[in-house]
Design brief:
single chain, 323 residues, alpha/beta, Quinone Oxidoreductase, Chain A, domain 1, 2 domains, seven-stranded mixed beta sheet, six-stranded parallel beta sheet
Length: 323
């Protein structure tokens, strides 16, 4: 073992979780305007398993083709141990980030290089597990809700409300002044979501969601998929759909017959240290809580992916890399 190598989880071929292997690789060197972060925890997000399997859920015309071998992961929380030329950061700072997204983050590793602009100082009140859980999920909800014009108001329905993006969207909508927040998830998550501030809860396993909700102003859909159109009747004419993931919303029917406004399906979350710092302030204030419900050691990244792909997760899962 040498000081210029590190442990990382990589894949050399696309496939099932078993393609993830922990091995020694060269330690990265920070470039201009970058820092080297000693990673204490790395967040787990859907793009990680999409990339691992070759993005089969994305239409072929826009499907990314990442180069192999690949170190997955874009959410990191850790300590600055070195700085590149021109970096304004200081060695020893506690930081976290959504790294180089969209793009290649390489977070499943002991060390990661991160541009200054993507970093936020991790508040002393937050631990590294929370710091790793927040970036992608929190920025997705925060940036998308801010992207909507006008700002969300009236009744907002969050589909997939118990998941990583969903449970944060419920809280951000509540903090942002939504008149009513309706959380859609399976019944076992009702107490969790009501504690986070949901005004109403709908168990999608008990029957069609549209039988329980009508006249909503916003559908924030974190699930998407081939059945996404089934939720459209919850909206009033002129209501908006905010699709976080790809889904079949039957565009002509939605915009024509139902008179709905479909959000920009090409919208993409972006790395932003400034936005992440704003989220941190909401978490520290108590307005937003990050639910970390699964922690796996780095060596068990494949097991973490297997669990994630079973679905029905509550909150976020995180890889513990180092104390």
């Amino acid at each position: 073992m040498t000081v210029d190598t590190m442990w990382a989880v990589r894949l050399h071929a696309f496939g099932a979780p078993e393609v993830l292997v922990r091995e020694r690789v060269p330690r990265p060197v920070p470039g201009p305007g970058e820092v080297l972060v000693r990673v204490h925890a790395a967040g787990l997000n859907p793009p990680d398993w999409y990339a691992r399997s070759g993005f089969p859920n994305i239409p072929a015309a826009i499907r990314p083709t990442p180069a192999l071998p690949l170190v997955p992961g874009s959410d990191v929380s850790g300590t600055v141990v070195a700085t590149g030329p021109g970096s304004a950061r200081q060695v020893g700072e506690r930081v976290h980030a959504l790294v180089n997204f969209p793009g290649r983050g390489a977070g499943y590793a002991e060390y990661a290089t991160v541009p200054d602009a993507h970093l936020a100082l991790l508040p002393d009140a937050l631990d590294h597990l929370t710091g790793a859980a927040l970036p992608m999920a929190g920025l997705t909800a925060y940036q998308y809700l801010r992207h909507l014009d006008p700002a969300p108001g009236g009744t907002a329905v969050v589909n997939g409300a118990a998941g990583g993006v969903g449970h944060l969207a419920v809280q951000l909508l509540r903090a942002g002044g939504a008149g009513e927040v309706v959380a859609v998830a399976s019944g076992r998550h009702e107490r969790f979501l009501r504690e986070l501030g949901a005004d109403r809860f709908v168990d999608y396993t008990a029957g069609p969601v549209a039988d329980a909700v009508r006249g909503a102003d916003l559908l924030f859909d974190t699930v998407g998929g081939p059945d996404a159109h089934r939720l459209l009747p919850v909206l009033r004419r002129g209501g908006r759909v905010a699709p976080v993931f790809f889904g079949d919303y039957r565009t002509e029917h939605a915009t024509g017959d139902l008179g709905l406004v479909l959000g920009d399906r090409s919208w993409q979350v972006r790395s932003s240290g400034a936005d992440l710092a704003a989220l941190d302030a909401l978490v520290v204030s108590g307005a937003v809580r990050v639910a970390v419900t699964g922690v796996f050691p780095l060596v068990e990244a494949a097991a973490a992916h297997r669990r994630a792909e079973q679905g029905h997760l509550r909150g976020k899962s995180v890889l513990h890399v180092a104390d």
